[in-house]
Design a protein that fits this description.
Chain lengths: ~650, ~475
């Protein structure tokens, strides 16, 4: 009863949570002109309110309870009733805190970063709209409402990638992101049709209940989960739908940090974690998810080694890390996957914001070949960037160490081959991240004199978020200490009720012995240190510089050009589609179909013109024709 | 008797306008369409409270041959009446700042069109229905012919003959049914309850189907449409695409399926496949269209292809979705063609290529245009999504693979719409000395109204569904 009261009291704050960013969107969009730079503070304030409410819900949600309620009927016909509904449980709370918390810091950062941009208020209205849709996605209690957020964040991503709309290359990147996401969305839609048809509803409760009545591994659930996974591949940039994410770096850097690293791209992982029962019941899909994740993780890491644009390196590392998370999900380690989502959100947001600060200092330049020795000019950026780089490389005790170690331990226990591949991918990650770090901050400056003169640390609105994120990137790992440290795994315990339902389908989790765990941690750490040492030897001791684009040859050229996947897609999908479009129009529409229509008209005309010749006005001819006609008729009369 | 009121206001207005001149014609046209909208709102409340009875009008028109004048109303008719009478003031208003020659004739024709459209949607006797169906063709022919653009003589003649030829097939169908029916009646109820023998329905189906397929149009009967949309003046295009093509889809539900049910059942797999193929076909053509109005025309073919497919799926989801989408499509397509008109009006460039940079000089226009584009690509929370979701689900219930192909519109729609938007609105201006004033008050008013409708219906589509569901349940049983 107490629980019930406590939950009822939370309905109102939960309903209002998402509305503040929406309000912020309207205010900044409608009154942007008169608000000017105040718009940035208003938009940030709205997110702060949402963050406070999230925190309030986090602190007041009793025990293992969850809050699930419908606001109103949205689409309702026949026996189908699709409502707007909200679900607040431990999983959505974690995401709420991440989205609003990091979202708030990035809003503040943007006030400094976008200060001189003429689209300042527009930028904040888009950002607020994005947070609104992201909150809808996270708080939904049904797949359909999740889909609102799912497509909504895609729209905001489109608007923000193409934020500088005068540049057509940016517009292309924006369009590409939207369309590739739409390919995934068709999968999501098909998955929803299957669920709606067979389960009679789309809210999680209905779906899970109906699914659990079916035998494990049956075709229907496998199809549903595969379709939903296609959606996740689009949104979370997995093979083969990942190519939009590196291009998405065209957007302003805070956007890359918020949307294309910390929050939106993890929506696919969230969705699968949310559907953990369905996925656990479909072992085949789990295999697919795992292998797609592993393949993406390695593939993107390899490409990351040869990128020279600071943001592109980070983009490929994001794709690679997302692959790691999918691999975790595919092995049934939902909590570990979510844990990596959270730690990754901190250190990757930090990396992008740090990169933004570097780009800010460099006056817009993004090529690491022109940087170098920046550590002494921008100390706070350098230091926070170092923490984030250590975290992503998996160095103890930074956040990435714990979450990555956990995934590797799961892999070691259940799929040794996956463990090897993911370890390799982690080694490569440590290498290219430190390559990036050394080239940017160490040795001496390689840019122009003018740039050197301009180098300066960013304003407090930018460095403060960096510092706060750095604290989390350093310490967030302690929420998920492995058993050998004798601590409870706060994160896994907190999420346990969410994943309770899928446990029975997953089989015994292999609890690694303490010795094994020490060994795994040792191997991972040594591997990372070797990578860092190699990077140090190459880029600091030997002062290597990445070659210019013209000098790159052979295999390196393939890697630097991302294995020409974009060109491949262009050649086998885009170009043919455009050609078919022309063929359809010119050949079928204009020539064949229209010809038939015109020919029909012509035949009518021709017949008319021909028959007119009979109308001679000659009475004799008429009588003659009449007699012939009568004879024909009589003939038929006799025969039949 | 409300039926007669709905018909007489636009008819009277149409006649009255002939005696006015200049700005007065325009203003009166707006006033009358608004009055008609008010009456429609009243009719809606009456219908909700008292049902069809206040609308029923049945008189014997001719005893030999036996012909009735029968008007009535059900949820589907009400929805179509609301759509027509809601769009007309918007269409009139969107031309407010355009220089239209002989406006009294132009607006008179437009109101006559409204009269005919209202008639089509409330006629419950085949003969009366046919008369209104043909009446609607006359004003739009003259509007296109006299106020149209390039090649208008040739294009409108083709349009006229093509649709008339289709209608003649329907007329023949009605005559056959008239002779065959025991009561010698074309009354909707009697046609529905005494269907012709299924041996005849097999070919009767095609007489009606082709007539409607041309009007809608369903691929491959569509070749008149892109040229006509392009050649007609924008307000004519709005009438054609916003309302007139709904005559076709409406008639599928009202006439085709109820009166030749066995014929429909026989050909259902074929016609639903044709519709779905048309969606993909038209969407792909739209990608490379160089002319803006033509691009919207092909996108419209793709959208109505899905509407027809949903109707042919013959289940509640598909039917209901088709009605929601007919309404939404009417609103959105008027928005799209208004945007096309605004661009042509400012730049005199009918093409997708060679403009660009509008976002820089007319941010308000760019924003509202974006909203209409998003509704057209069916983003959730816009009206386009609700209909599309239900339609695709309806097709899914019929056949999984068809719904997948129909679902390609989700991807292809984004391809052609975003390509178009980028080329026209974004980037740097490609025209020298482009003078592009942002929205005038009337344009802003229309576009904001449309945007509001887009979001309201996207979040709260229930009124449409509640209005039409009872009728559909009886139809799909």
């Amino acid at each position: 009863m107490d629980n019930f009261l406590a939950l009822t009291n939370l309905i109102q704050p939960a309903s209002l949570l998402a509305l503040f960013p929406l309000l912020g969107f309207f205010v900044t969009a409608l009154f942007g002109k008169s608000l000017k730079h105040a718009a940035g503070w208003i938009a940030s304030g709205m997110i702060l309110i949402s963050f406070s409410i999230s925190l309030y819900l986090f602190l007041n949600l009793p025990g293992e309870a969850s809050l699930n309620f419908n606001l109103f009927d949205w689409i309702k016909w026949g026996s189908v009733n699709l409502s707007f509904g909200i679900l607040i449980d431990h999983l959505s709370l974690i995401m709420l805190l991440v989205v609003t918390g990091i979202g708030f810091l990035i809003h503040i950062y943007s006030i400094g970063y976008m200060h001189h941009d003429e689209g300042f208020t527009r930028f904040f209205s888009y950002l607020n709209l994005f947070i609104f849709f992201m909150l809808v996605l996270v708080m939904a209690n049904s797949y359909l409402v999740m889909f609102i957020g799912w497509e909504g964040v895609g729209l905001c991503s489109y608007l923000l990638i193409g934020f500088w709309f005068k540049n057509d290359a940016y517009n292309d990147a924006a369009k590409k992101a939207f369309i590739m996401n739409r390919i995934g969305d068709l999968g999501f839609l098909m998955g929803m049709f299957l669920m709606l048809f067979h389960f009679g509803g789309l809210d999680y409760t209905t779906v899970n209940t109906a699914a659990q009545a079916l035998p494990m591994g049956n075709e229907l659930i496998v199809s549903i989960t595969l379709f939903l996974f296609i959606g996740a591949m689009g949104k979370s940039a997995q093979l083969p739908l990942y190519t939009w994410l590196p291009d998405a770096m065209a957007g302003p850097t805070p956007v890359s940090a918020l949307i294309h690293a910390a929050t939106m791209v993890t929506a696919g992982i969230y969705m699968i974690a949310r559907s953990n029962i369905l996925y656990a019941m479909a072992p085949f899909t789990m295999e697919v998810v795992m292998w797609v994740g592993v393949a993406t993780s390695i593939f993107a890491a390899i490409i990351g080694m040869k990128q020279n644009d600071i943001k592109k390196v980070l983009a490929y590392s994001t794709v690679s890390q997302l692959g790691l998370m999918f691999a975790a999900l595919g092995m049934g380690a939902f909590a570990s996957g979510m844990f990596h989502v959270v730690t990754h959100a901190f250190f990757k947001a930090l990396l992008f914001l740090g990169a933004g600060s570097v780009i800010h200092a460099m006056g817009g330049a993004q090529d690491i070949r022109q940087m170098g020795g920046l550590a002494k000019y921008i100390k706070i950026t350098w230091f926070t960037f170092l923490i984030a780089t250590l975290a992503i490389s998996g160095i103890f005790p930074f956040a990435g160490f714990f979450s990555k170690d956990e995934i590797l331990a799961v892999a070691f226990a259940s799929h040794k081959e996956v463990w090897i591949l993911l370890s390799v991918s982690s080694m490569i990650t440590a290498f290219y991240m430190f390559r990036l770090f050394f080239l940017t901050f160490n040795t001496s400056f390689r840019g122009t004199e003018e740039q050197k003169h301009h180098l300066h640390e960013s304003p407090i609105t930018m460095t403060l978020p960096l510092s706060i994120l750095a604290v989390f990137a350093a310490l967030a790992g302690f929420w998920g200490m492995p058993a050998v440290f004798g601590q409870t795994h706060f994160f896994a315990t907190y999420l346990a009720p969410v994943f309770e339902g899928s446990k029975q389908y997953l089989g015994e989790a292999h609890e690694a012995s303490h010795d094994t765990e020490w060994m795994l941690m040792g191997i991972a750490t040594v591997a990372a240190i070797i990578s860092i040492a190699v990077a140090y030897a190459l880029y600091i001791s030997k002062k290597w510089l990445p070659e210019t684009d013209e000098e790159t040859t052979g295999l390196a050229k393939w890697v630097a050009n991302k294995f020409y996947i974009d060109e491949l897609y262009d050649a086998i999908i885009v170009k043919p589609l455009l050609v078919i479009s022309d063929i359809f129009f010119v050949l079928i529409d204009k020539l064949i179909l229209d010809l038939i229509v015109m020919a029909t008209a012509w035949i009518v005309g021709f017949t008319g013109r021909t028959i007119r010749l009979v109308q001679t006005g000659n009475a004799g001819f008429y009588i003659f024709a009449m007699v012939i006609g009568m004879m024909v008729l009589m003939f038929f009369q006799l025969v039949y | 008797m409300l039926s007669l009121t709905l018909l007489s206001i636009p008819l009277a207005a149409s006649l009255l306008l002939l005696f006015t001149r200049g700005g007065l014609s325009r203003n009166l046209a707006l006033v009358f369409t608004l009055v008609q909208l008010g009456v429609t709102a009243y009719a809606y409340t009456v219908f909700n409270a008292a049902g069809a009875a206040p609308f029923d009008f049945l008189r014997n028109w001719s005893a030999k041959p036996f012909l009735n004048v029968h008007f009535s109303m059900d949820g589907i008719s009400m929805l179509m009446i609301i759509l027509s009478n809601l769009l007309l003031p918007l269409i009139v208003l969107s031309g407010y700042n355009r220089n239209i020659e002989r406006p009294h004739i132009f607006y008179s024709l437009m109101l006559f069109m409204q009269f005919a459209l209202n008639g089509v949607f409330i006629a419950f006797d085949g003969f009366i229905y046919y008369i209104f169906w043909e009446l609607a063709l006359i004003p739009i022919y003259f509007i296109s012919f006299n106020w149209g653009g390039e090649n208008r003589a040739q294009v409108t003649l083709k349009f006229f003959i093509y649709t008339l030829a289709g209608s003649l097939l329907m007329l023949f169908g009605f005559l056959f049914l008239y002779n065959g029916s025991p009561a010698h009646s074309l009354d909707w109820m009697s046609l529905k309850s005494n269907p012709s023998c299924s041996c005849n329905q097999s070919w009767l189906f095609w007489l009606f189907f082709i007539a409607f397929a041309i009007k809608i149009p369903i691929v491959p009967f569509h070749t008149w449409q892109p040229d006509t949309y392009k050649a007609a003046p924008t307000q004519g295009t709005m009438l054609l695409s916003g309302i007139m093509l709904k005559m076709g889809t409406y008639s599928l539900i009202r006439w085709l399926i109820p009166i030749v049910p066995a014929g429909f059942a026989e050909w259902q797999p074929l016609v639903i496949s044709i519709s779905v193929a048309g969606i993909v076909y038209a969407s792909i053509i739209a990608i490379m269209q160089r002319d803006l109005k033509r691009l919207f025309a092909y996108s419209s073919i793709a959208h109505v292809g899905l509407i027809s497919a949903g109707i042919f799926a013959m289940n509640l989801s598909g039917m209901q979705g088709s009605l929601v989408q007919m309404f939404s499509h009417g609103i959105n397509v008027v928005g799209l063609f208004l945007c096309a008109d605004i661009i042509f009006n400012r730049t005199q460039n009918p093409n997708v290529e060679g403009i660009g940079g509008i976002r820089l000089v007319a941010p308000q226009f760019a924003t509202w245009f974006m909203v209409v584009v998003l509704a057209s690509v069916a983003l959730p929370l816009t009206n386009g999504f609700v209909g599309e979701f239900m339609l695709l689900f309806g097709v899914y219930q019929y056949n999984t693979w068809l719904s997948f192909f129909a679902g390609l519109t989700v991807i292809l729609g984004a391809v052609y719409m975003l390509r178009m938007y980028q080329k026209v609105v974004l980037g740097k201006p490609m025209m020298e000395n482009m003078v592009f004033p942002d929205l005038y008050w009337n344009e802003k008013l229309v576009l904001i109204t449309i945007a509001v409708l887009i979001f309201v219906l996207g979040v709260y589509p229930s009124p449409i569904i509640e209005l039409t569901e009872p009728v559909l349940k009886t139809l799909t049983k």
